[in-house]
Amino acid sequence: MAIARYSSKRTHNEAVFGRLHALPPCKQGPDIARWVVAVADSEAGHDDALPTAKRQRMLRSLRTTSQRLNAATRNMAAASPTRRSRRDRSPPKKDMVVATRRKGRQGQLEEADADVQRSAANAFSEGAPSFPAPASSLRSLSPPKKKTASTKADLAYLNPNIEFLPLRNTEETGISLPASVTELWSRCEKRQLDSLITDPPVPLTDKDHRIIDDTLSDAFEQAEKWRNTTTEPHWISVVVGPILHLLRRIESFKNSAVPNAKIAVLDVTPIEISPAELVPFSKDPALYRDLDKRIDYVVGLDLHRTTLKTLRRTKYCTAAPSINQTASFANETPIFLNIEVKRRHVARDPTVQLAAWIAAEFTKRRYEEWDLGFPVFTIEIDGDNWLLRVAAARAVPRTSATAESPRNREGDAPETEAEEGPTTLPEDEYELFFFGPLALGDTLTLEGSKRLLANLIDITKWGQSEFRTWWGANVQMVLEQRMRR
């Protein structure tokens, strides 16, 4: 006894043709499969419709998985006397022909009977399921694909709400930027309009001048050499990184006598936002996947060791002991400038990654009950061009519907103390706005590079003075008070 299976797509070998030579011609098709069972005369049922001369059964047009499984079950019932005895005997289907082939002597019949059992089991467990399911059924089982938030318009559907507006529209949003921010913006605009204004806003030593001239000349040469051929990581290492690291090498930022006034420039490419609760999320979970949690560089304050001791002894409201949105080597750096790089001809908007990163910082402030109103700066680098934006947030008053959350409508008392890890925050408690952009300069020309550095130094000076003052009064002081409780 043997069971043979073949498809019209396969090459017919002699063994298969030996079993099928008696079959009449059949219409061939890619979805037609034939199952042939040779049954010994002694095992054939007496009520079979055809005589016991050579009988063969053929199943045609098995187009669905359920039909194939049913056909395999019928094969087993026809081949096994035990199974046939347990079922009501019925005449064979109209679309099948049953025939037997004499095996010869008794020894051959016993061997054939063992073959029947093995072949029938294989036919059911291995043969039938191996048929591919129709393409339509496979598509219906696939989960709906989520879209990646890849444009500024997509960010309006996230929590928190994130919008991009010109700087002149700040009053419409109800945000009042500090005077130091608007004055800094005006100085950068003047350098953009007058290309001759490239002098840095801080006093420079002779050593500073030599370092700046050598670094900018080399970065400009590297930009000319690799502009059209290199990858983003290499562009960052030979053009972007050297210009940014100049900020920590300038004497005014390197050896300041004021506590916490030194400048740190960090490559944060391998760092993700942590904890994950800080990452902006889609209001419709089926709409967007998680945002990218990384950017390329940050510029912040290099804190004094006495300040670091205080920060390490205090408790934080998030699971990660950090003063920002990270949990790695940058977690003790107050960040005021955030940079994301994108090479040309890449289908990715750097502002989307910056938006996720900055939103995580403001969400961190909400967890820790720090001031939400003070802004930070971002730079998106698109090839040679450096664009500045200022990010600011506005708290949204809770509505009565928000105050009466579904968890408390049935009389459940709200929890006053959170368990380990961050507490649950109400949705849409603040909105985030990015104002700008403003062109800081570029690496297309040496003069453009000098104007770029002058603006970067001006932003760093603001971070060393205005941002440091705000951070000391609204972050450091809050943490020190929390430690004394």
Describe this structure in words.
This protein is of the alpha+beta class and 485 residues long. The chain has 2 domains: 136 residues, no CATH class; 306 residues, no CATH class. The protein is 39% helix and 15% strand. The protein contains 14 helices and 11 strands. The strands form 3 sheets. The protein has a 7-stranded mixed beta sheet, sandwiched between helices. Strand 9 and strand 10 form a beta hairpin. Helix 2 runs antiparallel to helix 4, helix 7 packs antiparallel against helix 14 and helix 8 packs antiparallel against helix 9. The chain is globular, with a radius of gyration of 37 Å. The N and C termini lie far apart (86 Å). 31% of the residues are buried. The N terminus is likely disordered. This is PD-(D/E)XK nuclease-like domain-containing protein.
Share in helix: 25-40%
* Biggest sheet architecture: 7 strands, mixed
- In DSSP terms (H or I, runs of 4 or more residues), the helix count works out at 14
Outline the low-pLDDT stretches.
Answer: 1-12, 27-65, 82-88, 93-106, 123-145, 400-423
The helix/strand series, from N terminus to C terminus, equals EHEHHHHEEHHHHHEEEHEHEEHEH
What characteristic shape results from the CA principal axes? globular
Strand order of the largest sheet: 4-11-10-9-8-7-5
Please report the distance between the alpha carbons of the first and last residues.
86 Å
Estimated radius of gyration? 37 Å
Q: What share of the residues does DSSP label as strand, in percent?
A: 5-15%
Q: Label the structural class.
A: alpha+beta
| Number of strand elements | 11
